[in-house]
Amino acid sequence: MSLLEVAGLSVRTRDGALLVHDLSFSVDAGERVGLIGESGSGKSVTSLAVTGLLDAGLDARGSVLLDGHQIVGAPDRMLRPLRGPCASIVFQEPLTALDPLMRVGRQIAEPITRHRGLRGRDLTRAVAEALDAVALPGERIARSYPHELSGGQRQRVAIAIALAAHPRLLIADEPTTALDVTVQNEILDLLDHLVAERDMALLFISHDLAVVSRMAQRVTVLEKGVAVESGSVGDVIAAPAHAYTQRLVASARLLDDALDSAPSSSNSPGGGDDA
Amino acid sequence: MSLLELQGASFAYRRGGPVVHDVSLSLGAGESIGLVGESGAGKSTILSLLLGLSAPTSGEVLFDGIPLARRDRTLMRRFRSSVQTVFQDPYSSLDPRQRIDRIVAEPLRSLGIATGDDALERVAEAVASVGLERDALRRFPHEFSGGQRQRIAIARAIVCRPKVLLADEPVSGLDVTTRIQVIDVLRRLRDETGLALLMVSHDFTSVAALCERTVVLKDGRVVEEGATGSILSSPTTDYARSLVAAIPRLP
Questions:
Q1: Cα distance from B97 to chain A (closest Cα, Å)?
Q2: What's the complex ipTM?
Q3: What's the fold here for domain B2-89+164-245?
Q4: CATH 3.40.50.300 given to domain A1-86+169-245
């Protein structure tokens, strides 16, 4: 059985607009799956629906089985023990996930206490380990408030919190979109390494084909809430079958090619400083 | 000849060190420069110097070869109609309560360039040149997608037929398909009307698709500059190398 099994998931707003329509996909234990889509594709709504975090105004139908537990329609008290040990989310903007008035160390300690029951010196050590795992200098960061950290450091803290309860599935929703490109690269390396080391499953959600292709083995392409194509990342990018995916890949390829074919110094006025 | 130029420009806040240090760059007709750097590199400060919104603490901003004097009203008037800008967020830069024709005509009104039929004609021309239909004119911003709104913002920027367009992350908030369309609009304006373009971006990919030359900034200094293709294929500084290496690529 899959760790995450989404079958016929539909999400509607109160006034009837369909945000996700009849979506099915699965993530096996230890597997890396990508959800690709542009704005309005329903990818973030999907990530919230699979963890039971949908806004009260949104209505989910269909089935989401997380480690065998039905998420759709489940009351919050049933979901709470699953969030953390079963699945955790990292969002695009770490500031929304962090409490601005609480030191980072305490924010990491909270889920560790809740899920692993650690206290006192053991807890302090576990917090230090959690920070170390995301390559942050423990003591200084633990005493800091979120606003004292850079965007990349904050996202590392958010990852440390998400991993505190040793989840079997990590959901990363555009985790690097707000970051500088070199920081993005570091965070992707970190996620890559952590997912492999802990044998976690990864559901990686992004609009960026290049980023998804680096992080996932299989992908599902979403267009306006409908899955139009699924397959291995390599196949989908090399030979997209659906018209929407073809358009998406062609656009991304055009930009990618520009990196190789940008004009060199010969035809630019005032250039000519070849080494 | 250079239309807009920074000569050894530095900028520092009253307390604290310089955020932009000894930056020189020059933009001529039909040229396009990408200003690439990460957060805190000084991109926005340089843009505000180039727009005459703040004055350099040392060095000069030259417009048509003349030092920009913010108190010279005649010069500044000519400057405002010649140097226009497009911002990253097309959602917040368009007044939601105004129709597109009024939004696009705004620079004509505020700079006193054209009124009446003359203004209408120029607005229609600007809207057409960014590839929007004529019926867009009577609609409101919320009726458009992000890419279309960015076209509207570009139409407003070019309606007074500027010589220079400064674009601050103009495609960063857009989906990849729309991003290409907006880049195409900018490229066409440059190639067909000789509009000089300076695009500020953290995204090397968009710069590669549009700009012939690239200036790489770090901590308020120019660390590398040259033809975009040369920097991408053989960056000479460690920083530019790390930027290029970090660009996510398709398999």
A1: 24
A2: 0.87
A3: Rossmann fold (3.40.50)
A4: yes
